[in-house]
Amino acid sequence: MTTALDVIRADRALTVVRAPRIPDPLALADTLAGAGIRAVELTFTTPDVTAALRAASASERAVVGAGTVTTGEQAEQAIGSGARFLVTPGLRPEVAAVAARHDIPVVMGAFTPSEVMRALDLGAAAVKIFPARALGPGYLKDLRGPFPNVPLIPSGGVHAGNAAEFLAHGAVAVTAGTDVVPPAAVEAGLWSEIAERATLFVGSMK
């Protein structure tokens, strides 16, 4: 069975959606998948995100996960709502425990080498390097030295202008954020604009 991480690796990207409202989560997920980014992360910063997860998870093309998961309770809610992967902003042992119990991959947030090692100890399937904008693509190259086989996914400050550089420096995938899914465009349901942004982002990685 194809896992969420397989999809993220294949597309070399996932999209994190932060918006005060998602009027049609299924349309959003299908739009992003159609443009070439099948892994879609809906975050707990969006009110009633569990309803959005349930709706988006009906997509036959997208792989939908939950982000900004900080507690075991949120992890349970996300998985119960159809999330196929979890993403944390930092080291969260209770989230890792729930993910392991349900055999759901977790992409755990870290920044320093010590945090990367701790994330691996907790069973992270991949490590989100956040905030990536702080030190830029070169930092990924430095991390690849001691961690040549660890899937690293930069998040925060990744855009069409630097995505290829992050990948060239060792990222297995990059996280597309407001460059692809501006909150205002999501809230307004501007799917054609989002499709264009996603297509541009995907093209920039080649």
Feature tags:
Aldolase_TIM; 206 residues; 8 strands; 10 helices; (4S)-4-hydroxy-2-oxoglutarate aldolase activity; 2-dehydro-3-deoxy-phosphogluconate aldolase activity; alpha/beta; 43% helix; four-stranded parallel β-sheet; TIM Barrel
Structural commentary:
There is one protein chain. This protein is of the alpha/beta class. It has one domain: TIM Barrel, CATH 3.20.20.70. It is 43% helix and 16% strand. It is built from ten helices and eight strands. The strands form two sheets. The protein has a four-stranded parallel sheet with strand order 3-2-1-8. It has a four-stranded parallel sheet with strand order 4-5-6-7. Helix 2 crosses helix 3, helix 2 packs parallel to helix 10 and helix 4 runs parallel beside helix 5. The chain is globular and about 45 Å long. The mean pLDDT is 97.
Topology:
Layout: H1 4-11, E1 13-17, H2 25-35, E2 39-43, H3 49-56, E3 63-67, H4 72-80, E4 86-87, H5 93-102, E5 106-110, H6 113-121, E6 126-129, H7 137-144, E7 152-154, H8 163-168, E8 174-176, H9 183-188, H10 191-204
Parallel strand pairs: 1-2, 1-8, 2-3, 4-5, 5-6, 6-7
